[in-house]
Amino acid sequence: MTDSDEPLAAGAAAICRGTRRLLSSLGQGSLTEITLATGRRVDIMAIDRRAEVLVVEVKSSIADFKSDRKWRDYLAFCDRFAFAVSPDFPQSLIPEEAGLIVADSYEAVIIRPPAGTPLSAARRKALLLRFALVAAARLQHLDDPPLS
């Protein structure tokens, strides 16, 4: 069970890095590029000590944001949802119902906390299991890379 480890575009990678640093400072574990049961892939999934799931969609440009029609599909797979954007991204484009994080490659700030809608117990269990298996597979790959 492996999810993609393919690199993000430079701008998205910087936003992702700063966002994950923020999440870590808040006591949340996070992974990038997690594929959901629907086949959709979220940019960042984070889990906190209460087993709440946060999904963060990284948007590195206005064109990237305007072409995205899938973000609402993620709402059924998290307790909270937020967009992470660069400091120069026009924040007024981000829908009010989503959280807003502004990040660069070094740090991030929560501008608007994401509202919460609790997951069902079954969905939460499935997501936590998926998160754990992907994390374990990635660690295994680091410890024992496949032979070429």
List keywords for this structure.
148 residues; alpha/beta; Trna Endonuclease, Chain: A, domain 1; 6-stranded mixed sheet; globular; disordered N terminus
Give the overall shape, derived from the CA principal axes. Answer: globular
The CATH class turns out to be Alpha Beta
Mean pLDDT, rounded to whole units?
A: 92
Query: Which structural category do the helix and sheet elements fall into?
Result: alpha/beta
Number of domains: 1
| Pattern of helices and strands | HEEEHEEEH
CATH topology: Trna Endonuclease, Chain: A, domain 1
What level of helicity do the residues show? Answer: 25-40%
End-to-end CA span? 19 Å
Low-pLDDT segments: 1-7
Radius of gyration: 15 Å
Question: Could you outline the blueprint of secondary structure elements for this entry?
Answer:
Elements: H1 10-25, E1 29-35, E2 41-47, E3 53-59, H2 62-66, E4 80-85, E5 99-103, E6 108-112, H3 121-143
What does this structure look like?
The structure is a single chain. With 148 residues, this protein is of the alpha/beta class. The protein has helices spanning 10-25, 62-66, 121-143, and strands at 29-35, 41-47, 53-59, 80-85, 99-103, 108-112. The protein has one domain (10-143): 3-Layer(aba) Sandwich (Trna Endonuclease, Chain: A, domain 1). The chain contains three helices and six strands, in the order H-E-E-E-H-E-E-E-H. The chain has a six-stranded mixed sheet with strand order 1-2-3-4-5-6. The model is unreliable at 1-7 (pLDDT under 50).
